[in-house]
Design goal:
Bound molecules: fe (ii) ion
Number of helices: 9
Number of domains: 1
Largest sheet: 7 strands, antiparallel
Order of helices and strands: HHEHEHEEHHEEEEEEHEEEEEHH
CATH topology: Jelly Rolls
Number of strands: 15
Helix content: 25-40%
Distance between the termini: 35 Å
CATH superfamily: q2cbj1_9rhob like domain
Low-confidence stretches: none
Mean pLDDT: 93
């Protein structure tokens, strides 16, 4: 299948963004992102593509790696405490760790001819996201982090956390029977205010500003997670929740930290990077 056959172009005219229908789509996505930092596009991929993507993802399941079982909301920013130069108590958000229970398949283990890779590498996607963000969008160039598949069985969850990128693009391939809800607090922090008091409320479960995104298989979700804390609630039932994470960036040549890749994808990364 070609990229043009994967995307539901009747609903999402990515091949004709210059038409009135294309403008309308981009405007509605921008409005949604402006409102609360997220946007969901149901049935983004065709039913046939979804079925094939799910089967291909399941065929790679034995390559998934569990990574850390707990992490702080600032998981990816190892030096924040030092940078801020503040005294933190035991209950401070910087010191809090939440349960993380998921397995991830790294980009280097996803064959280029799998439909997820075809979609991810399609210029239709980068052109579309460039239009939405009104700046040039590139594929993440990290050989492990650029495209991931996340698998969560019963009990699986992801702790409250912030992302590092400008926008995370996910495609749900299979839902769990229950649980597995994506929850977030839009723009809880900004570039110059970490807003630790509100973060503490979220971690304590007493914030009343937490929202939910009800994701469905085939739905593309655009989420600005750098300043919006978010999590996935615990999965219930025997059906594995399967989600693809498509990494795009607004700068060229973006790569992630090797330390993070070793944590997430296992010792094989350390071996591979040290033998260069
Ligand atoms: Fe995230």
């Amino acid at each position: 299948m070609k990229p043009i056959d994967l995307i539901n172009l009747d609903l999402y005219p990515l091949d004709r963004l210059e038409t009135p229908a294309g403008h309308k789509l981009v405007t509605s996505i921008r409005d949604s992102l402006e409102l609360d930092g997220s946007c969901t596009l149901p049935d983004f991929v065709t039913a046939n593509a979804l079925q094939a993507m799910r089967s291909q993802a399941i065929s790679l399941a034995d390559k998934a790696y569990s990574g850390p079982t707990s992490a702080s909301p600032y998981f990816f920013n190892y030096d924040l405490e030092k940078e801020l130069d503040i005294d933190v108590d035991r209950k401070h958000p910087l010191r809090r760790k939440g349960k993380r229970n998921l397995r991830q398949i790294a980009a280097d283990l996803i064959p280029g001819d799998h439909l997820l890779s075809v979609l991810y590498c399609s210029d239709l996607m980068t052109q579309f996201l460039s239009r939405v963000l009104d700046k040039e969008v590139f594929r993440n160039q990290d050989k492990y982090q650029s495209l991931n598949i996340s698998l969560q069985n019963e009990g699986g969850c992801q702790q409250w956390h912030f992302d590092t990128g400008d926008m995370v693009t996910t495609l749900l391939l299979q839902s769990s029977e229950s649980g597995g809800i994506f929850e977030y607090y839009p723009r809880i922090r900004s570039e110059d205010d970490e807003n630790f008091e509100e973060v503490r409320k979220v971690l304590d479960g007493i914030s009343n500003r937490v929202k939910q995104l009800h994701l469905r298989p085939g739905m593309l979700s655009l989420f600005q997670g750098r300043n919006s804390i978010h999590r996935v609630t615990e999965i219930r039932g025997s059906t594995c929740r399967i989600q693809a994470i498509l990494g795009y960036a607004t700068s060229p040549n973006v790569v992630g930290s090797t330390k993070s890749s070793i944590l997430h994808y296992g010792p094989r990364v350390a071996l591979r990077e040290n033998t260069r």
